[in-house]
Specification:
Blueprint lengths: L1 H21 L4 E8 L4 E9 L2 E10 L4 E6 L6 E6 L5 E7 L4 E7 L3 H4 L1 E3 L2 H29 L3 H25 L4 H8 L20 H8 L18 H12 L4 H15 L3 H16 L7 H11 L10 H14 L12 E3 L5 E3 L7 E7 L4 H17 L4 E7 L5 H10 L5 E4 L7 H4 L7 E5 L5 E4 L3 H16 L1
Helix pairs in contact: 3-4, 4-5, 8-9, 8-10, 9-10, 10-11
Length: 469
């Protein structure tokens, strides 16, 4: 029995060993780099706005190293990184995931030899052509500036530049499905036609901007998730949202919906865009952009659409959106009624002035101790113009110290404190730090929030000017 058990155990181990050895490699990338030895290298890649390290390999004394695995890698632009985190050279991983590359560390582009990957062969041919062309253009540019034959150098520069652009255009036309072609396409800006003439005989001054915005993504294939793994897709998204779209919540919301619509049915693209936009605007330092977060949360963070998110994460996002929605710009301020230092209830809604400042502060907060004197000086200068301050003491203990502080510093605005611990203002107004300032109009609508005194003064002057018009 013991011999039989031993035999079966041995057979089982052999079968496991055969099975493991038989497991096919889905990617196998072999490299040889002259001048690199007895070290480690990393396989890195792009995703959105980050670079990641996916694998590590030991480099032998002859410069050989290899990355392999039983899973296919996502199609995209990758790179090899040295032990000191310096990028050595780039490569493309797509349909061909078993290939070899050989180069000299003195010049990766000009010495690279590729076997088993037509796309990487073309990639390095393109890089070598580009490097050589740019070297010639640099030389001609210097001749245009300082040479004896400036006109001739200019003609040769223009001719070479045209040929270089045609080389890229021809490559895209010949290999439209290659990732390199998609990358080359993405870096091209739309060509803007001449502006049409208006009825007054002048060119339409708004045409260039509107055309550029409308055609900014003409050369971007949103249905191809490989572009997520390149260094050029995310910068275009960021440029569109931060430099091209007007930085107000309504414009950003429209732009966000437009981008997500372009993702179509591609789940990876949809996931990236939704995650990036909702995170960016939840944490934006630009006032009012929390409206973008609320919109994204309510429209896209649902069990049916955000399938990558756990139920608890969805609930957190929903709760956050529900908390922020009532205090978005333009919303009517949530009522507050708290006792003052004489135990007399003071209601926010009872204030009848053109502008009301809600000041959440703590007498024991070091930042508040710096901000409060600035705010009282500002208040003294504007209260005659129809401004009142409703100062909410957020510290629920130390009522006597609060009263002493108010008296000592002559805070002659409306001072209230949650003396009976019945208020919910911390949650209602998202008061997680102090000091915090909200500005309301005469209808108690929120017109600015989370300001300091300096910015409060600028914002108030803006609204005062609007009131006079």
């Amino acid at each position: 029995m013991k011999l039989k058990a031993l035999y079966l155990s041995t057979l089982y181990l052999i079968l496991i060993s055969i099975t493991l050895k038989a497991a096919p490699k889905k990617h196998d990338l072999k490299f040889n780099v002259a001048g690199l030895k007895n070290t480690v290298c990393y396989l890195g890649g792009h995703y959105g706005d980050h670079d990641y390290i996916y694998d590590t390999a030991k480099v032998d004394d002859k410069g050989n190293f290899e990355f392999s695995g039983e899973k296919e890698l996502d199609g995209g632009a990758y790179f090899i990184v040295s032990a000191n985190k310096r990028k050595l050279f780039e490569l493309i991983i797509d349909k061909e995931q078993k290939f070899s590359m050989q180069a000299d560390s003195t010049n990766y582009v000009k010495t690279m030899k590729v076997q088993g990957s037509e796309e990487n062969k073309l990639f390095y041919e393109f890089q070598e052509y580009s490097v050589t062309t740019h070297e010639k253009l640099d030389t001609l540019a210097k001749q245009i500036k300082n040479g004896p034959d400036k006109d001739g150098a200019k003609r040769r520069f223009d001719s070479l530049n045209t040929i270089g652009k045609k080389y890229g255009t021809d490559f895209i036309a010949k290999h439209p499905d290659m990732l390199l072609a998609k990358i080359l396409n993405m870096v091209e800006d739309p060509v803007i036609p001449p502006a049409p003439t208006l009825s007054n005989g002048r060119p339409d001054s708004n045409f260039t901007y509107q055309y550029y915005k409308a055609h900014f993504f003409d050369n971007v294939d949103f249905s191809d998730p490989r572009i997520l793994h390149t260094p050029v897709f995310f910068p275009k998204i960021k440029e569109y949202l931060t430099r091209i779209i007007i930085p107000n919540p309504d414009s950003i919301i429209a732009a966000a919906d437009y981008l997500i619509q372009k993702a179509g049915t591609d789940k990876d693209m949809f996931k990236f865009l939704v995650q990036y936009i909702i995170y960016t605007y939840e944490n934006s330092e630009i006032m009012g952009m929390d409206a973008v977060f609320v919109h994204m949360a309510k429209k896209y963070y649902t069990p049916e659409l955000a399938t990558w998110v756990t139920a608890s994460q969805l609930e957190r996002v929903k709760e956050r959106a529900d908390q922020l929605e009532p205090i978005l710009l333009g919303k009517r301020a949530i009522p507050i009624a708290l006792p003052d230092s004489n135990n007399v209830m003071q209601s926010l809604d009872s204030i009848k002035t053109e502008f009301t400042v809600i000041y959440f502060w703590d007498y024991d907060c070091s930042h508040c101790q710096k901000e409060t004197p600035k705010l009282i000086r500002w208040y003294d200068s504007v209260k005659a113009e129809g401004v009142e301050v409703y100062a909410v003491q957020t510290n629920s203990t130390g009522a006597d110290k609060w009263k002493d502080y108010v008296k000592k510093h002559k805070l002659d605005w409306i001072n209230v404190m949650d003396l009976f611990h019945t208020g919910n203002f911390r949650h209602d107004y998202d008061v997680v730090t102090t000091p915090m300032i909200y500005l309301l109009d005469k209808h108690k609508n929120i017109i600015a929030k989370k300001l300091d005194t300096d910015n409060l003064d600028k914002v108030l002057k803006h609204f005062m000017l609007l009131r006079k018009k």
